[in-house]
Design brief:
There is one protein chain. This protein has an eight-stranded mixed β-sheet with strand order 6-7-8-3-9-10-12-11, sandwiched between helices. Strands 2-1-4-5 form a four-stranded antiparallel β-sheet, with helices on one face. It contains 13 helices and twelve strands. Helix content is 34%, strand content 23%. It is an alpha/beta fold and 336 residues long. The protein has helices at 46-54, 79-85, 97-100, 107-118, 123-136, 142-145, 155-167, 185-202, 213-219, 237-242, 247-254, 300-304, 323-328, and strands at 4-15, 18-30, 35-39, 61-69, 72-73, 90-93, 173-177, 205-210, 222-227, 230-236, 309-313, 316-319.
């Protein structure tokens, strides 16, 4: 039985131009100890999916379908019931810690808060546990830093505080939404290594949201590629990256910067790009493939009929009419 089961998840947004769907029928499941990466360009529905899981959607959004945690449908819960789960059984690391941490409260108080609310610890117990968590996530001199305010810490240290808060009650599921976006490359690596190590130690499940395929490849077991609110390809990360069957997945992979052999290779070839942009939500329809206007393989059927999920073996599938042709092509000039 899955720890988390998401079935036909839809997120509708009410806007001045009418109602639109930011997430359109998403399905996936997650076992305890399993790691799932959700990848795609900005505007593909990744963060809306995370907010729906946590019950933190904006006021103009409504989720439908089913999100089951321990066989409890989170979408049927009221705010009081969700508040008892958030920070306890489910926790989230947000993109930008400076806007997620309260600037008026010391970091020790913010780490201790979920312990007092969910674990009913005394202030002294929560303070000691906060020190232990700060040490666990690699914040130097915890006893000196525990009374600091967020603005007194570096970006990497603030993100470590966010991780400490998320881990405080040892949740079953950790959702990390672009946790390294605002950090430099060296700190990014440290934070991702830290998250991976803590997930391994605790046995919790991880959902890592990113636009970076390299980060996904090194961090998770399974990957789900989103485009225009739908899953266009999913499966074990090694299988998906070895046999990318959707043109969008291939476009993302081809656009990744690579080191070129030899210093004489100058000028270096321009990175391939995916033509066009992510469609406006108001322009999406229930028919056809949303990627068709940007796809070199698109034909009239792609614009008229929604492609089914084509099974490729080992729980790997892609929603495309041209999986055979896609698999036979080359990626960025290299054999598929």
């Amino acid at each position: 039985m899955a720890l988390l089961d998401v079935s036909n998840l839809k997120v509708d947004l009410r806007t001045a131009r009418g109602s639109v769907q930011a997430v359109r029928g998403l399905d996936f499941s997650l076992q305890r100890g399993e790691t799932l990466g959700i990848v795609g360009e900005s505007g593909c529905g990744k963060s809306m999916t995370a907010l729906a899981l946590m019950g933190l959607l904006p006021d103009n959004a409504r989720a439908s379908g089913s999100i089951s945690l321990h066989d409890q449908n989170l979408l049927a819960m009221n705010e009081t019931q969700l508040s008892q789960l958030r920070g306890d059984r489910m926790a989230m690391i947000f993109q930008e810690p400076m806007t997620s941490l309260n600037p008026l409260h010391r970091i020790g108080e913010q780490i201790a808060e979920p312990l007092r609310l969910h674990r009913k610890m005394t202030p002294r117990q929560a303070h000691q546990r906060a020190l232990d968590l700060m040490d666990r996530v690699g914040i130097p001199n915890p006893s000196q830093r525990i009374d600091a305010y967020p603005h007194q810490l570096s970006g990497g240290q603030r993100q470590r505080v966010m991780i400490a808060m998320a881990l405080a009650c040892e949740p079953d599921i950790l959702v990390a939404d672009e946790p390294t976006t605002a950090l430099d490359v060296t700190i990014q690596g440290q934070i991702l290594d830290l998250i991976g190590r803590l997930v391994d130690e605790s046995g919790m499940a991880l959902i890592l949201i990113s636009h970076d395929l390299g980060v996904i490849a090194e961090t998770v077991d399974r990957v789900l590629v989103m485009y225009a609110g739908r899953a266009v390809e999913h499966g074990p990360v090694q299988d998906v990256f070895a046999r990318m069957a959707h043109p969008y997945t291939r476009g993302l992979f081809a656009a990744m910067p690579r080191l070129h052999e030899g210093v004489a290779a100058w000028p270096r070839p321009a990175l391939p790009t995916i033509a066009g942009i992510v469609p406006d939500l108001h322009d999406l329809t229930d028919h056809g493939c949303a990627f068709a206007p940007r796809c070199s393989l698109a034909d009239p059927r792609c614009g008229a009929q929604t492609p089914p999920n084509t099974a490729l073996g080992n729980d790997h599938a892609a929603a495309c009419w041209h999986t055979d042709q896609t698999l036979a092509e080359k990626i960025g000039g290299q054999p598929a």
